[in-house]
Amino acid sequence: MILVTGGAGFIGANFVLDWLAQSDEPVLNLDKLTYAGNRENLASLEGDARHLFVHGDIGDSALVADLLARHQPRAVINFAAESHVDRSIHGPEAFIQTNVVGTLRLLEAVRAYWGGLNADAQSAFRFLHVSTDEVYGSLAPSDPAFTEDHVFEPNSPYSASKAASDHLVRAWHHTYGLPVLTTNCSNNYGPYHFPEKLIPLMIVNALAGKPLPIYGDGQQVRDWLYVKDHCSAIRRVLEAGRVGETYNVGGWNEKPNLDIVHTVCGLLDELRPRADGQSYSGQITYVKDRPGHDRRYAIDARKLERELGWKPAETFDTGIRKTVEWYLANPEWVAHVQSGAYRDWVQTQYTGAAA
Ligand code: NAD
Ligand code: TYD
C-alpha cells in the first residue's frame, strides 16, 4: 500500500487514477477536502476496494500516526498543499499552516513510523515530496533553465512556503536518515484542474461568455507539463530515484501566457464555435498585474531523463487539445465546481439528492 496525501486535488487525483489503472497496489488517500479537494475527481473509484479515502489533515499527528500504524504503507507521496499563488497573496496563513507546519507534522509522524519498521522495510521505504519550480524564483529571458542546483529564491507566500517544506524534507534526510525524494515540477495542466488556475479558468470563462483576464502584459512565461506526464515522472522517481535527491520535472514547453490563452481560444473556436461566429479571443481583457509576479519559469529536466530515463509523452499541442476536449466532455464537473455542489458530491451520491 502507498499513502497519498492531497489525492482529491488536481494532480493527486490524476496520480491516484493513473496509479490504480496500472497497478493493484492499494492507495490510502488522506485529504482535508479544502475548496480545492473534490471527491468527484475520484468518482470512478467508488466501490473500488483498492482505494481507501480518509478525510483528514496532514497536520493531525494522531490521525496520521494511526493511519501509518494500521495500514503500514511502503511509501508516502505528499501532494497535500495550498497551491494557488493569488490566494497566498490574500491569505498567506493557510499556506504556512499546511505547506510548512503540515509537512513538518507529516514528516515527524512518518519518521516515528519508519523508525519502528524492520531493517528491510526501513530501507525500502520512501517519502516522496511533490514540490514546484517556483521555489527557484524568477528567470530573466536569457537565463538558463532551472537545474536542481539553482539557488532557492521564492518570491510569493506560496513559493516561500513550498521552499520551506522542501528544506524540511531535505533536513529530515540529512539529520534523521529518512529516505526522502523531492520532485520540483513546472506548471501542470490537464483534466480536473480547478478553474482558478490560468488554463481551466480561460476555458470555463470563454464558454460562459465571460472576460479572459490577462495579468499585466501577458508576456510572463511558464513551462507547461501535461499532468499525466507529471504523474509518470513521480512513479518513476518513486521506483528508481536516488534517496535524498531532488529531480526537476518539466515538459520543455515554455510559453508566454498570452500565447496559451490564444491557443485555448483557437481550440474552442474549432471545437465549440461561438454562436456569433466571432473568436473567443475577443473576450481577452487585460487586468492589473499580480503583485510580485514572477516573469519566467523554465525547467531543465535533463537529470530525470539521464538518470531515470523519463521523458514526457505529450507535446503541448497534444496535451492542450486533450485538456480542452476533456472540459468540453465534462460540463457536469465544471457546473458542480462553479455552483459549489462538488463539496456535497459524496452526500448526494448516497442520498440521491439533486446536486
Ligand atoms: P490542489 O490545490 O489542486 O490540491 C491540493 C489538495 O490538497 C486538495 O485536494 C486539498 O483538499 C488537499 N489539502 C490541502 N491542505 C491539506 C491538508 N492540510 N491535509 C490534507 N490535505 C490537504 O493542488 P495541485 O495542483 O494538485 O498540487 C498538488 C501538489 O503539487 C502541491 O504540493 C503543489 O505545490 C504541487 N505542484 C503543483 C503544480 C501545479 O501546476 N498545479 C506544479 C508543481 C507542483
Ligand atoms: P497560475 O495558473 O495561477 O499558476 P502560477 O501562478 O503558479 O504560475 O498562473 C499562470 C500564469 O498565468 C501566471 O503568470 C499568472 C497568469 N494568470 C493570468 O494572467 N490570468 C489569470 O486569470 C490567472 C489565474 C493567471
From TrEMBL:
Gene3D superfamilies: NAD(P)-binding Rossmann-like Domain, UDP-galactose 4-epimerase, domain 1. Residues 3-323 form the NAD(P)-binding domain. It catalyses: dTDP-alpha-D-glucose = dTDP-4-dehydro-6-deoxy-alpha-D-glucose + H2O. Its EC number is 4.2.1.46. Pfam families: GDP_Man_Dehyd. Its cofactor is NAD(+). One of its GO terms (molecular function) is dTDP-glucose 4,6-dehydratase activity. PROSITE patterns: ADH_SHORT. InterPro entries: dTDP_Gluc_deHydtase, NAD(P)-bd_dom, NAD(P)-bd_dom_sf, Sc_DH/Rdtase_CS. The keyword Lyase applies. Keywords: Lyase, NAD. The keyword Kinase does not apply. Belongs to the NAD(P)-dependent epimerase/dehydratase family. dTDP-glucose dehydratase subfamily. NCBIfam families: dTDP_gluc_dehyt. This is dTDP-glucose 4,6-dehydratase. The lineage of its organism: Bacteria, Pseudomonadati, Pseudomonadota, Betaproteobacteria, Burkholderiales. The gene is rfbB.
